[in-house]
Amino acid sequence: MTSDEIVEMLDFEEQWPRWSGRKDEAIRARFNVTPARYFQILNRAIETREALEARPMLVRRLRRRRERARAEQARRAG
Length: 78
Hints:
The protein is mainly alpha-helical. It is built from five helices and no strands. The protein has one domain (3-77).
């Protein structure tokens, strides 16, 4: 994934901070992937140095959100 692609995804996340059906449609239209695939790619992208340098506050927020979701899943499973 190139730096430009990472920044494009981060820009998109800033525009669409909440999940909705419309975000689903926008993901498909803009990136030509399913929402599930988009989030897989995004989760890898926010681990990169390029992402952290481009949008540090957003990347930290997305990482915290991901960690909260993982903790909630672990709590439900355990």
